[in-house]
Design brief:
CATH architecture of the largest domain: 2-Layer Sandwich
Distance between the termini: 69 Å
Number of domains: 5
Helix content: 25-40%
Shape: globular
Strand order of the largest sheet: 14-13-10-11-12-15-23-21-20
Radius of gyration: 27 Å
Strand content: 25-35%
Number of helices: 18
Oligomer: single chain
CATH class of the largest domain: Alpha Beta
CATH topology of the largest domain: Glycoprotein, Type 4 Pilin
């Protein structure tokens, strides 16, 4: 077994590998760019080596820098994580030439399966059913259009060396092929150093289901069940679960056997994933094989009890698999929510900056046997950089059934407190409560179909709004009782005065009277007689999350202080609750509403990023929807478009400029 390994990656996956290595008694070496000098994976490793400037192509993608770090520290093996160099055959070869073990598959498997074009050719030759498409290299937009015409729309344009949704576009017309081809190539070159793309038929209403395989250097290979990865946005997985709510035992076995056969055909060793597109009749088609550890591997670990990172390390050290196919059983249900630094209310644009607050839910097994696991590479006070993937954490829950795992995930998301940047937790929470999710009626088009106009927050029913108003009254009562007892601020006021609560929840008014209290239980009587509520919670002033129940219904609510009240986040929605006395409420109703400034004649930068191109000039007439510039953030190129017909009056940012949120890029007449 190895004494020391180096992790050629960053963020949560580097921390994940370090955790298992420590459990096995193996020393670890982290590598870092200038942007990651204070990153969590650097803190957690036994040693750390700087490998270059912030851009990945000058640090994490530089093979010589990784090898030199191994030599400097005496690391005997390298775990590549996912992304970066994890599926790079040249990297695996270079390690071998320097006597360093690659904790991953052999070079032949990487070359055969890691390249998306070659993997489809190989699978087709091996008799594996594949999605129709053109597997050759495509050089020009015109050639891409011709091929797409022959295949038939819609088509998928994909980076050959890609993964994680980078360099991938769906095109439904010739115009979309032209634009998508150029953007996919640019993203592929930026993310993977390889601009090749290919085109295949896009299967309408598909499910994305993948099989986890595990092999050793002695010819043994097994599969560890499947993961359902159909909840995707822009071809990036958002929520995964294991097992799939769609597969029956026969289909699971057939997919698993085919995945193992493909793995054995290339003498696959280590952990890998065979991805399939599955139609409504459970026909499945080979999509690609990822010759690395997947982002969503925790759900497989939770339902099988197998540490995949440990297995990868043992296989790389030459050990035989200690498991056979008969040893693999799927126990319970696991769900993973990917928490990203992005703004769901602004079309999921990237959000970078400092994590002023980062308080995940408590991890571990609760008294009912339910599990919360949070894989992360950040910490409170740390920074989300513009240079890398926007993932903050992978929140996972396990329970005996899918319904229980879903409810547990909903509560965990409500308790996940992040401030300083925007994040997608409200969106994830909304999905957990969506009827289609709960019915398991999933396709890769789920998000586009259910949120065609984007995400504007969850809709709360009337009962939930009343309960949130009651929680605001509870919070205000606890704070005021503390003031009254400690500072004497309310001395001389009658007890009925201190117990009146009028809550303005957005534009609704709710009047309560604190009728009685027993320990952590407060009884509220509605002033109009419509509701008598019993609230129990252990909240204390300053706490970020209220855990409790309203009329015996459990609730978890995030609490942020605002003037005269609270901003409450629950169930994918955020509401502002101002709390007044009766007289204060009368006066508040007379106050005029402050209107935001008019920015309709400006193009504001929606995310921190780098200006890649400006496609118009001063004086140009632009049409609504016309592309006017491209901004790159977190390795994704984002086309900004005019919102209405206008004339360009001024351009305030040139290509190469670094932009912040709200910077005025253009002004219009």
């Amino acid at each position: 077994m190895f004494d020391k390994i180096l992790i050629a990656n960053r963020g949560e996956i580097a921390c994940r590998v370090i955790r298992t290595a420590k459990k096995m008694g193996i020393a670890t070496v982290a590598v870092y760019s200038d942007a990651d000098a204070r990153a969590l994976h650097v803190r957690e490793a036994d040693e750390a080596v700087r490998i270059g400037p912030a851009p990945a192509n000058q640090s994490y993608l530089v093979i010589d820098a990784i090898i030199q770090a191994c030599k400097t520290t005496g690391a005997q093996a390298v775990h590549p994580g996912y992304g970066f160099l994890s599926e790079n055959a040249a990297f695996a070869k270079a390690l071998a030439e320097n006597g360093i073990v690659f904790i991953g598959p052999n070079v032949r498997a990487i070359e055969a399966m890691g390249d998306k074009i070659e993997s489809k050719r190989f699978a087709d030759a091996a008799g594996v059913n594949t999605v129709p498409g053109f597997l050759g290299e495509i050089e020009t937009p015109a050639e891409a259009i011709r091929i797409a015409d022959e295949i038939g729309y819609p088509v998928m344009i994909k980076a050959s060396a890609g993964g994680g949704g980078k360099g991938m576009r769906i095109a439904k017309s010739r115009d979309e092929v032209k634009e998508g081809f150029e953007l996919a190539r640019a993203e592929a070159k930026s993310s993977f150093g390889d601009e090749r793309v290919f085109i295949e038929k896009f299967v309408v209403n598909p499910r994305h289901i993948e099989i986890q395989v595990l092999g050793d250097k002695h010819g043994n290979a097994i599969y560890l069940g499947e993961r359902e990865c159909s909840i995707q946005r822009r071809n990036q997985k958002v929520i995964e679960e294991a097992p799939s709510p769609f597969l029956d035992e026969a289909t699971r076995a057939a997919m698993g056997q085919q995945a193992v056969a493909l793995a054995k055909a290339v003498d696959y060793e280590s952990a890998g994933t065979v991805e399939f597109i599955v139609d409504q009749d459970r026909n499945f088609y080979f999509l690609e094989m990822n010759t690395r550890l997947q982002v969503e591997h925790p759900v497989t670990e939770l339902v099988t009890g197998i540490d995949l990172v440990e297995q990868m390390i043992r296989v790389a050290a030459g050990e035989r698999l200690s498991l056979t196919q008969d040893d693999i059983t799927l126990n319970g249900w696991a769900i993973e929510s990917r928490i990203y630094a992005e703004d769901p209310y602004r079309n999921f644009l990237p959000s970078t900056g400092r994590l002023v607050r980062y308080r995940p839910p408590v991890q571990g097994t609760d008294d009912q046997g339910l599990i919360i696991r949070n894989d992360t590479g950040v910490y409170e006070g740390g920074e989300i950089s513009i240079y890398y993937d926007p993932m903050i954490a992978k929140l996972c829950t396990w329970a005996p059934t899918r319904d229980e795992a879903t409810r547990h995930m909903s509560t965990a998301l409500d308790a996940f407190y992040i401030d300083g940047i925007q994040h997608n937790i409200p969106f994830l929470s909304t999905i957990m409560r969506h009827p289609r999710w709960n019915a398991g009626a999933l396709t890769t088009g789920f998000i586009a179909e259910e949120f065609p106009d984007g995400f504007n927050g969850a809709e709360l029913d009337e009962d939930t709004r009343v309960r949130l108003a009651a929680v605001a009254a509870f919070l205000d009562h606890v704070e005021n009782e503390r003031k009254r007892l400690i500072t004497g601020q309310l001395r001389g006021k009658p007890i009925t005065f201190t117990r009146q609560r009028v809550v303005k929840l957005d534009n609704e008014w709710h009047a309560f009277l604190v009728d009685d209290e027993e320990g952590d239980t407060i009884f509220l009587r509605s002033r109009d007689g419509a509701a008598d509520l019993e609230l129990t919670g252990d909240w204390r002033p300053g706490a970020l999350v209220w855990h409790g129940s309203v009329d015996a219904m459990p609730m978890t609510v995030q609490v942020r202080r605002v003037l005269n009240g609270y901003r409450l986040a629950h169930a994918g929605a955020e509401v502002v609750a101002h709390v007044y006395t009766g007289r204060e409420a009368e006066l508040a109703k007379l106050m005029p509403e402050k209107l935001p400034p008019d920015t309709s004649r400006m193009l504001l930068c929606p995310m921190p990023g780098l200006m890649i191109s400006v496609d118009v000039s001063v004086g140009d007439k632009v049409k609504a929807g016309q592309a006017v510039c491209v901004v790159e953030a977190m390795k994704m190129q984002n086309v900004l478009r005019a919102e209405r017909d206008a004339v360009v009056a001024a351009i305030n940012a040139a290509p190469g400029a670094t932009l912040a949120v709200g910077d005025v890029i253009m002004e219009f007449e």
